[in-house]
Design a protein that fits this description.
The protein is mostly helical. The chain contains 9 helices and no strands.
Amino acid sequence: MSGEQMRPNMAERVGAQALAGVRYCGGMTLLLGRSARWAFRGLFVPGVRFGREALAAQIIRIGMRSLGIVVLVQVFIGVILALQMTPPLAPWGQVDKIANIIGVAGFRMLGPIITAIVLSGFAGASIAAELGTMVVSEEIEALEATALNPIRFLVVPRVLATLVVTVLLSIVADIMIALGGYLAGLALGPEVHVGYWQRMREQLDYRDFFTGLFQAGVFGLLIGLIACYEGLKVKGGAEGVGRATTMTVVYSIVAIIVAACLFTVVFYIYEV
């Protein structure tokens, strides 16, 4: 095949991928708008429910399933950070600054982002598989036939649950990262662990904590929306459910990393 024949095909493929990406973002935006509408009405309009029992059940199920792995991973992240920073800081006599660095890195970014990545596997895959199975078994059509809106009773509780759980687990993650750094400091020597918590408190302020929680909320929202969107558009039986589960995790991680990069740039520019 000549180069002249390959170039139009390549352009067509790139254009098709770009169009698919625009279509995907458009579908996500519509789902976000419809979910926000039902969430607002359920919270503030008397007589309108969106499944508060389902919301509580999702929060408990997702949170309890993810708590142990989040604690384990974040403690090890704190240990890794402390051990990796010691060699470059030691020649300058700055190993006592490990507490400061772990505090800023953990509270502002690593706590929320690692928690969100863990939840993309636990919550995202589970939600996509649940909704995809309901689509395949025609339960969604049954809900619509009985005048029950799937967005209202299935999507909204799951999206809100992932948002709330990501924020709550990020608070736990921040503490666990700091604890991991302290545990590593016990092995590294008194210059690290003596005064560790005091130095971390002096370094951190409210901006570090709340910017991390804000990012965690956005990450949780992205996970819930992507999982629900992938689950509701399942086609092809069990194979489609498997694909939706896989793509939910992939797209969620990509969205989390991109959002984290954008937040970092914005916070850097505005010195937040």
